[in-house]
Each structure stands twice: as structure tokens, then as C-alpha cells.
Amino acid sequence: MLSTKVKASAITHLTDARYFAAWETNWLGFMLSPGTEESVDLQLVAALREWVDGVKICGEFSLATLPEIEAAIEVLGLETVQLGMLTPLENLQALKGKVEIIQEIVVEAYITAEELSALMEERKDAVDYFLLQFNKGGLTWPDIQEGTPFGADQLEAWAKQYPLLVDLPLEGTPPTQFLEQIKVEGFSVQGAAEEKVGVKSFDELDDFFEDLEVLI
């Protein structure tokens, strides 16, 4: 088992799904909004979930209408949805209590701590977790340590105030060491393309998961 929550995001094939499920991640995420490289269709998700047990299936939506999200929840029996930061608050409120909600917030160099605080404060009662997505914004843990776009003290304060998941390249810092300072609820990691069908190297992710592994 793992010492913290982990969400596997943007899964597109069975190799990733089985790998992350074997590590007992909490969520397997599949991008269900069309138009992105990671998008998959509902039939693939339905097929892949037959191969995994003990993990929540999360539908990821960058842009989608409320009826589209509700239809996917019904067809796939989704336990969790991850919604983009432009999702209207009323859509979050409409889904609250029907499904677990992760609100993705892409953190970029130009965003301010005040803007992020205001967004999370506005939406805290409508979501179960905020996913601070640093990776998509090109930011790393060393950037935060240097104060770009805010410092580690600010991230630590938010972790005490809100239920946070982070997708943050740690650049050599072991995840358990990061958690000693920033007590977030957990991490999000990304799926990636196979080298060929059924073949993929997981060396970097192996190091990540082995550091978090709790032997019982």
C-alpha cells in the first residue's frame, strides 16, 4: 500500500491502467473531453475497467457541458470526476453529492497567490479535492522553492486549509521528503504512450512509488 493518495491521470491504454492499479493508486483517470491527445472514448474506458479492481475510475473533463458529464457518469458508473478550472461553479454544485469531485487548477508563472486563494475559497464547498496542476504550467518544485509564482510557505498554508492533490515535478526530491514539509492529500501522476503495444518503461515511476510504499 501507499503512504498517501495518488491519482493516475490521462491513461490511454491497458498497460498504464494495470500498472497503476497494481500500485494501488486511489484513482485511474481517463480524459473524456474530445480534442486532446489523451482523449479516449467511453467504450475503451468501459473495457479497461474490467481489467482492474480496487481503484476508483475518474472521468476527466477539460471542457464539457453538465449534460455531457452526467451522461458519462451514468454510462460508465463513474465514482469520481475531474473538472477543468473553467467549469462553472453551478455545474460543480449540481454534481455535488452525486459523485466525488476533483477541481483541476492549472498553476502558471503569471498567476498570483491571491487569485488562487480566491478561486479555492469560492469553490471549497462544492469540491472534494483541488488538484494543483503545476506540470502543465511548466513549473517544478525548485521553482516553488525559489518563489515562482509563490513560495513553499504559501503552498504549505494552502495544504493546511484545503484538500490538495498536486501534479508537481519534484526534480529529484523524494515524495516522502516533500510530504514532510507540504502535507498535501496526495499526488497526481501522468500516464504516457507505450513504446509499442504492451511495452513501456516505468523506471522513473517505480522510484516514485517505491519511496511511497508502506510494507505491511
Question: What would you say this structure looks like, in words?
Answer:
With 216 residues, this protein is of the alpha/beta class. It has a single domain, classed as Aldolase class I (TIM Barrel, Alpha-Beta Barrel), CATH 3.20.20. The chain is built from 9 helices and 8 strands. It has helices spanning 14-22, 42-48, 66-76, 89-95, 113-123, 141-145, 152-161, 175-181, 203-212, and strands at residues 5-9, 27-31, 56-61, 80-83, 100-106, 129-133, 164-167, 186-190. An 8-stranded parallel β-barrel has the order 1-2-3-4-5-6-7-8. The mean pLDDT is 92.
Shape: globular
SSE pattern: EHEHEHEHEHEHHEHEH
Order of adjacent strands in the largest pleated sheet: 1-2-3-4-5-6-7-8
Per CATH, the architecture is Alpha-Beta Barrel
In total, how many beta strands?
Answer: 8
**Radius of gyration in whole Å, from Cα?**
17 Å
Distance between the termini: 8 Å
Assembly classification: single chain
CATH superfamily: Aldolase class I
- Please name the CATH topology: TIM Barrel
For the largest beta-sheet, the strand count, sense and barrel status come to: 8 strands, parallel, barrel
The helix fraction, in percent, is 25-40%
CATH uppermost class = Alpha Beta
